[in-house]
Amino acid sequence: MTIFAYTRVSKAENETGTTDNQITLIESQHRIDSVFSDVNISGSMPFQKRPEAQKLIEKLSAGDTIVIAKLDRGFRDTADCLNTVKWLQQKKITLKILDIALDVSTPIGEMILTIMASVATFERKRIAERIKDGFSNGRHNGKAYGYKIEAVRQGIAKKASARHQAAMERYFMITNHLKGKIAQGASEAQMLAHLTKIGLPISRTTLRKALNR
What we know:
Blueprint: E1 3-9, H1 20-27, E2 34-39, H2 51-59, E3 65-68, H3 71-74, H4 78-90, E4 94-97, E5 102-103, H5 107-140, H6 150-177, H7 179-183, H8 188-197, H9 204-210
Parallel strand pairs: 1-2, 1-3, 3-4
Antiparallel strand pairs: 4-5
Helix pairs in contact: 6-9
Organism: Serratia inhibens
GO molecular function, one term: DNA strand exchange activity
Keywords: DNA recombination, DNA-binding
């Protein structure tokens, strides 16, 4: 039996574009054999169409387990959630979602998941509607929005520069901890294991960015 961790983040939700906090949460409760992380992928994209999720699916065998830190990291659409869960059940794959501590292999678990997924979808649509109404009211009152506004461009450029600097500093720290492993020609799995051992768990995507691969 293999235990896989699946994580996802969109740039809008996490300025650093990493899923390391999700990995840390999952590893605090489970011994993970492999991690698949979709970065800069919207939750509106169906689970089985996401690049890393597709790679995960190819690795699955009966008896395996997928662990997700939060429900909305895996699914933001009720139909996609329930269809994926049903597909996993048919393949005899266990799905664990940590933030709701739910075992979807039971009828009551499946019922609760249906309700929670429906609420999450409803709330996402409500948020989108409120944002749309806010922009509409603002424009009606003469307020301008968009990248064409100089202040907006400057703000975006400043934040982008700060994100880039923070990322470069983080990558330098990671490679500094891996100097010995890099010199030995260690594999990515060995490097990730070493970082986890010293209390610096990261995703494979972050490692590859740090190594400029």
